[in-house]
Each structure stands twice: as C-alpha cells, then as structure tokens.
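We give the entry.
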Amino acid sequence: MTINTRGEFAGQVALVTGAASGIGRAVALLLHERGAHVVAEDRNPTVHDLARPGLVPLVADISADGAAEAAVATAIEHFGRLDILVNNAGIIINKLLVDMTRDDWERIQQVNVTAAFLHAREAVKAMIPNRSGAIVNIASYAAFQSFPTISAYAASKGALAQLTRTLALEVIGQGIRVNAVGSGDVLTNILNDVVDDGPAFLAQHGQTTPIQRAAQPEEIAEVVAFLASQRASYLVGAVVMADGGMSVTAG
C-alpha cells in the first residue's frame, strides 16, 4: 500500500523548536517538503541555514520569558495562523544525583518541560479559534525507563509525557490533538556536551536495542509527521514509542 503524503500539510503552519539540527531540523524540512509553512526556532544561529521560501528561522532561547509568545507571533505575522507545534528542543546532563547542582537540575527542566509547556500554552491560544491543530512533543523511552546518571533527563521526559496526556484531555474538545513520540537513541548532537563524540556514542548505545542500531533523525521525523497529520486523527494523548524496541525489553 502506497500512501501519498505529498502536499498533505498544504495551507498549514508549523512551529518546530530545536530546529537547527537533529530531529528538529529533519522535522522542519519534512513538514516544509509536504507543503507546510514553517517557523524553525533554535538558540543556535545556524538555524538560519534553513531559510527558504515558506520557512522562517527564529533564533531564541525557548526557555526564556516571552520566547513562546514571540515564536507564535512570528508564525501568525508571517503566515496568518498556527496549526502544528512540535516541541522538539531538549538537552541532557549525565551526572549522578549526588553530584548534580540545583542549576544543573533546573536547566534540564526549563528546556525540556517548562519551555514545552509555554509553547503549548501559546500555541493552543492560537489554535482554539480555528478549532483544529496538532501538538507533538518529543519525549523519550526515558519517560518510562531509566539508568544511572540521567535522573534529571528522565524526570523531564516523564513530566513531558504526562503533560502530553493531560493537555490532550483539556483541548480535544476544541479539535486540537496532543501526542508525543517516545524516541530512542537517535544520531544527533544532544550528547556533544557530555561525551567527545555524541553521535558515535549514540550509535554504539543503539546497538543494545532489539533493532541493534540507533535511528536516523529522518525516521523520527516521519513519526512526527504522521502524528501531526489527519492520518493520526484518532490518536489523542498517545506516546508513540519509536525506540527500536527499547521500551519492550526488560531494561
């Protein structure tokens, strides 16, 4: 069976956070390729490399006061509406709990949870008048499983999963669907501040999954696009695991 996805987001407007690289970049490009106008938000100025007709880069710290409001306003200013929000941006720290500072802990929560809450809140305000919309949060298998040194990250992704479920119940009556992707190891730069070669570490760790490899960002982007589309019209508050089978192992 061949599904024609060409132009499936025509006339829609998407906001993608953490769009300069990795999953966010793949999502922004895929949605744009399939017809969406896109605002690509990231604190890294290299997000400007994505600039093209119908794709507007925005440099911002997503956790800063006013950033969510400005991002949604940018979408409306340039394209007149907002239909899709992808809360992708995330950071990680690998420290034992006893070695972690309060600043370490709070920075992870600010980026991975609070910024997602703020962007979702502002996006919902823009979507309610249209009585339609889709929000996709990038969670992790760490929302359900864990291992030493990722307590802050695991807590943030667990919170994001619960935010997804709760917000989904609050806004489905306005025609807005909220779901999440439980991502596994993906070949991105998220660990570059933790290890010497983040993608290489993730590639190695991915070999421990049942599928025996890490994902490419484009593979996760396909799941995001599905959840944002009408093909997923009956999914509400789901955390769709795209983790190579990690979540169904004994740990």
Summary: The chain has a mean pLDDT of 94. The helical segments are 22-33, 67-79, 102-127, 151-171, 198-206, 217-228. The first helix runs from residue 22 to 33.
